[in-house]
Amino acid sequence: TPAPHAQILEVVKELLAKQGITLDIVEFTDYILPNNAVEDGSLDANYFQHITYMNNFNDEYQTHLTSVADVHYEPFGLYAGKTASIDALPDGAQIAVPNDTTNEARALLLLQDNGLITLKEGVGITATKLDIVENPKNLEIVELEAKQLPVRLADVDMAVINGNYALDAGLSVSDALAVEAADSEAGKAYVNVLTVKEGREDDLAIQALAKALTSDEVRTYIDDTFGGAVVPVF
């Protein structure tokens, strides 16, 4: 995806060029095509998704994707739409969340961490809105495709938005009403990874890519560029 992944890869591209390796960066704006492209061999690797999404994708589509590097974590944020603060949420307020399985659970966990709902005990990162057992404000959970969340923010009271789509829309994590903690259940389960098809892990170019992507230069770039919206984990 364009932000932050493609931006980070521009730094990697320069590092690899010094080793005689050309990195071609292909941008996508959805979460399915880049995995299919790695599975069918039309791309060598992708860098856009977290480990839980990748594992679920393998289960759902019978693909053979594997991680070769843990790179960064993007905290989910709860952003104001029609309503400016959590305390001001009216009864029956609409809160938009991503509609894909892993990211919806992540959004619901953030709402629970901020006292807005209570989920069935033990559901964790498999939660859906059907697992809400307490909803004192009668919030309406609106499920939308992840990339539509910033576009529809003005139509709902609040939205829980993926880090990369928030960045694309010019939203700052510092503006969020609530942000995932790095040590939360979600924080540990949603590290963004460099992904290849099984069997490609030891390719020399893939190993060089993984090393460059987890280099000091990339860590410095992330820290200096994204203001806490992207957190290196290496």
The biggest sheet, with number of strands, parallel, antiparallel or mixed sense and barrel status, is:
5 strands, mixed
Query: Helix/strand-derived class?
Result: alpha+beta
**Low-confidence parts:** none
Could you tell me the strand content as a percent range? 15-25%
Alpha carbon gap, first and last residue: 21 Å
Q: Order the strands across the largest sheet as they lie in space.
A: 7-4-8-3-9
Treating each run of at least 4 consecutive H or I residues as one helix, how many helices?
8
Q: State the helical fraction.
A: 25-40%
H-E string:
HHEHEEEHEEEEHEHEHHE
Shape: globular
Number of strands: 11
> Kindly state the mean pLDDT as a whole number?
94
Keywords:
single chain; 234 residues; alpha+beta; 5-stranded mixed sheet; 4-stranded antiparallel sheet; 8 helices; globular
